[in-house]
Amino acid sequence: MNEAKDRRFMTLALSLGRRGMGRVWPNPAVGCVIVADGRIVGRGWTADGGRPHAETQALAQAGVSARGAVAYVTLEPCSHHGKSPPCAEALIAAGVERVVVAAGDPDPRVAGRGIAMLRSAGIMVETGVMEAEAVADHEGFLRRVTAGRPVVTLKLAASLDGRIATASGESQWITGPSARRIVHAMRARHDAVMLGGGTARADDPALTVRGLGIDLQPVRVVVSRHLDIPFNGQLARTAREVPLWICHGAGAAGTAAWEARGAVCLACDVADAQVEPRSVLQALGAQGLTRVFCEGGGGLAASLLSAGLVDELVMFSAGLMLGAEGIPMVGALGVEALAEAPRLQLAEVRDLGGDVMHRWVRG
Q1: Pick from 114, 56, 113, 120: which is nearest to 84 by CA?
Q2: Residues 6+ apart with CB under 8 A from 17
Q3: Per-residue DSSP letter, 217
Q4: d(C-alpha 324, C-alpha 314), whole Å
Q5: 55, 76, 295, 312: which is the annotated catalytic residue?
């Protein structure tokens, strides 16, 4: 065993796995590298829609060279029969000699069974190589399995004084083209893009990824208690071309009309006169989503922050001031003491040529 070599090949496997982010739900975005005599003979990552799995792709590329080789996998190989045979069986059949696994899979259908299956077949298995990095990459899948909800990235773009629009509602554009391009790239790496009904009414957004040439759009999610979003807006007009899901209060009128347009309507609990955010995320998790990119507005951002449901916050600050009369980026949080305020840890700061991006994560 060579720790430096294991880390080098696992780093490649992780980078391959990230290619599937936003494209493979409800499955995890796994990467796999197969190495024979120090040479890479197979590479793979989870295909669009979740099939074939990374191991299957890498083994197909390696062919007979997989016999006696080492397989590096970012998540424990599956051990159950689903839409395809177990990856653990495929690795055994291919004759690999050693499997290096970054992180275990808590799915009750796997949960150590994949590793046990490999070891029972006489294959040497190493675990925990770059585990922290793998857990970070697979956080959405792991959170859905263990807590029933996807991870949430909250994106905010505001002036230096924390305003997202002028008093009249003008907001395009507070940030520059570099920041907007990064936002589109972030959308593409998530399963869904989410916003509140107020923002849908005010901005009439398309919520699609543009300018990157991608062929698989994320699901668009709107949280609207009364389903009172524009029936003739961009979201409604494109509901059959790009998935549109609406999370609404139970008993809201108009679900049949939206479903006839091609939208999926998900009834959620209501608390304090708003759709309850935990209920929204549980509904999205039940549908298989693992990673959600929330783009506001202020009310939805506040409800997610207050409930402790923001796993990552990406803030874009532009070099202008809009004053107290501007629209704040976050709604009321009900904070009366500093100890009650949601706190995050700074993870990254980046200069975007006139704007600043700072990324924060849960403590």
Answers
A1: 56
A2: 28, 29, 30, 31, 45, 46, 54, 74, 137
A3: P
A4: 23
A5: 55
Q: Within 13 Å of residue 69, how many CA atoms lie on the same side as its CB?
A: 27
Per the DSSP assignment, residues forming a β-bridge with 345 are 361
Question: For this structure, is 55 an active site residue?
Answer: yes
**Token representation of residue 48:** 């669009």
Q: Which pTM value belongs to this model?
A: 0.93
**Residue that the structure tokens 């046990």 belong to:** 116
Query: Which tokens hold the place of 320?
Result: 């202008």
Angle (CA) 163 197 311, round 5°: 65
Name the amino acid, one letter, at 134: A
Which SS3 state, helix, strand or coil, does residue 302 take? helix
Per-residue pLDDT of the chain in tens (363 residues, 90 and over written 9): 688 899 999 999 999 999 999 999 999 999 999 999 999 999 999 999 998 999 999 999 999 999 999 999 999 998 876 666 789 999 999 999 999 999 999 988 888 899 999 999 999 999 999 999 999 999 999 999 999 999 999 999 988 888 888 888 777 788 888 998 999 999 999 999 999 998 899 889 999 999 888 889 999 999 999 999 999 899 999 999 999 999 999 889 889 999 999 999 999 999 988 999 999 999 999 999 999 999 978 899 999 999 999 999 999 999 888 888 888 888 888 888 888 888 899 999 999 888 999 999 987
Distance, CA of 359 to CA of 312 (rounded, Å): 7
Q: Which of 279, 35, 119 is nearest to 127 (CA)?
A: 119
Strand 291-294 to 327-328 pairing: unpaired
Secondary structure (3-state) at 86: coil
DSSP-derived 3-state class of residue 220: strand
Residues 56 and 235: their CA atoms lie apart, in Å, by 37
Q: CA geometry: angle at 235 spanning 330 and 156, to 5°?
A: 20
**Other residues' Cβ atoms within 10 Å of the Cβ of residue 13:** 28
The string of DSSP letters for 17-75 reads HGGGTTTSTTS---EEEEEETTEEEEEEEPPGGG-S-HHHHHHHHHGGGGTT-EEEEEE
Which amino acid does the sequence have at 339? A
Q: Half-sphere exposure (CA, 13 Å, Cβ side) for 362?
A: 14
